[in-house]
Amino acid sequence: MSYRIDRRQFAKLAAAVAAGAVLSNTAGAAEAFRLGALNSITGAGGAYGPGMLEAIQIAVAEVNAAGGAAGRQFELFAEDDQTKPDAAVLAVKKLVEINRVEAVVGIWPSSVQLATLPITNAANVPSFNVCGAPELETLDDKDLVFQFYASNKVIGAVFAEVAKKRGFKNPAVLAYNNATMVAQAENFRSTWEAGGGEVADFIVYEPNQTSYRTELDRALSKNPDILVLSSYTPDVTIILKEWYQSGYDCKLISPGWSITQAVADALGPEVSAQATTISNVPASSTEAYKAFHEAFVARTGRQPEMFATAAYDMVIVLALAIELAGASAKGTEISAKIRNVTNAPGNKVSTFAEGLAALKRGEEIDYEGASSPLEFGEAGQTTPAFGIFGFEDNKLALQEVMTLKS
Amino acid sequence: MDWINITNAAINGIVLGLLLALPALAVTLVFGIARFPHAAVGDYMTFGAYTAILVQSFMSASLVAAALIASAATAFLSLFFYAWVFRSLSQRSPVSSLIASIGVAFAVRSVITFFAGQSQYVIEAPLVRAWNFSGVRILPTDLYVAATAVLALAAVFFMLHFTAFGRRMRAVADNPELAAASGIRVREVMITLSVIVGAFCGLGGMLMGFKAVVLPELGWELILPIFASVILGGIGSPVGAVCGMILFGISQEIASLYVGASYKLVLAFVVLLLVLLIRPQGMFGKIIAVR
Lengths: 406, 291
Known about the structure:
The complex is a heterodimer of chains A (406) and B (291).
Chain A: H1 2-26, E1 33-39, H2 49-65, E2 74-80, H3 85-98, E3 103-107, H4 110-122, E4 127-129, H5 136-139, E5 145-147, H6 152-165, E6 171-176, H7 179-194, E7 201-205, H8 213-220, E8 226-230, H9 233-246, E9 251-255, H10 261-267, H11 269-272, E10 275-280, H12 287-300, H13 306-325, H14 331-335, H15 338-342, E11 347-349, H16 352-360, E12 365-367, E13 386-392, E14 395-402
Parallel strand pairs in A: 1-2, 1-3, 3-4, 4-5, 6-7, 6-8, 8-9, 9-10, 11-12
Antiparallel strand pairs in A: 10-13, 13-14
Helix pairs in contact in A: 2-12, 2-13, 3-4, 6-7, 13-16
Chain B: H1 3-33, H2 41-58, H3 63-89, H4 94-116, E1 131-133, E2 136-138, H5 140-162, H6 164-174, H7 176-181, H8 186-211, H9 223-233, H10 238-258, H11 264-278
Antiparallel strand pairs in B: 1-2
Protein name (chain B): Branched-chain amino acid ABC transporter permease
GO molecular function, one term (chain B): L-valine transmembrane transporter activity
Subcellular location (chain B): Cell membrane
């Protein structure tokens, strides 16, 4: 008997909720903008994902406090992609098909963006990431994908600039065999050779091996003065162990996600002292960064890093583009306005509220982000400033900041 | 390529081969005695490596202690799965046991990932420079790894060929019914086999983690070369498994000097094909007449 009563109660409740929803809609406010956050909370990206989600929440609160984008409040739906493409596909399907989100922000690994791109593009949903895979530039045929972190091609070129500036003559390259890292290494080689240098050896190695000694011996037999390691953490840990044990003396350069503080902790100062790593760094002198930094520290008690800063910018940029495109704009109509609000020329703005006011006055704006000036190229790519890091007493330390012309 | 590079590559191949000979021997013993290809050996290795990490972080930094406890824990794990899964499947077709072993592999890996996550761990050991003999480099670490593997292999060979228990194992391998009829307790042999499989995989996994880094896929990635070298050596032949693995290791490392390093596994398989073309039964395999 109780079962029947429950069902009736449920029906009443459901009716009440439905009525409430209808009433609130008719009450005047525009429909909320459903925003999906797809972050790597667990897995290899777990060091960055949680911070990125916090940054997204900060930005959503900022947009909503200013009255929303084109009058629409942001409603956030968050999912964990586990840094795995298969889990990401399930998560993004849930976001797009069940939560009916109209944009996805916060994607960290290229593998996830490459796997979810067909789904979001088919659903006309913009997706913003911090990936570096060069193939994203060609795969996105609807101009819905925007990269807030430098492409690996550019990182390869920066390796060459840094190596040249520091007076190295004979680099040898070891590259992890996937499209992204090989592209990074190839771009190092072409930039280096364009500058008149020669590459001692160029070795593409197979991932998931337990020893890279033969590949390494082959590179070292050419007497390089610097090893360019287009690599990830697991393989670079083995390579560095074997490199140190070989007794060969040279310097090392790698992307920032490869020789990390954890690698230095595992291998010790004698190894890490030889390493230089390159990562994008936030635009720390801008007003936008200062405001975001304050909000992030207040909320989490931690310093924001580059990926969190970029995640914050994703939401602000999206909100400004929606404001410009209008409350009823969808997918490509929104993404078509992104360059209008971020790229020069225009009045420089640093916060959503400033941008909103300027757009309402009918001005052109140029949002100077917390992560970078955000000048998006034709393929939705951007080039933030690069930090050149070294290890001092086995602690990662910023040595120099370098900007490239985009 | 000069001889120094080739020597270095060969040394590297021998060390890797000796290390992987531990799980390869386990595979070939299981195949000879329990008659199914055991696909969970790779993940038993992973389990051994993670046990070593656990020992290092909570008990002692000693590598010897880590190796012993890793072997013992993995032996226990192998025994557990024998009692739970493989014992009841022993009367069925080998395919059931093979499929079950794949399931065990997934289960072990998923449980490890659940507790330890996807990120990498490193077995702590002091990094030492190699001894350099005018270009030919020998790593002290590699010597320890190779010596441990050789000792373990020698112990099993001694047991198989010079003890009464080894004779019983070989008898069960030849014909389980006949062995049982002659009063050999088959279950006792199976239990010992499970312990050897576990201990060898645990030790192999710990040594692998010591040389490389510890990740949930550590052992699973090695299954293909291990199975290939068991076939190369002759299925069911313990000497064959060890020699097959070493030949596989050397050919893979030397190959990477001549072709792109990404193709080294392919060249190792070319060697496998060539050997099997000349000796289809493998290097040490026996031709079995089918009645």
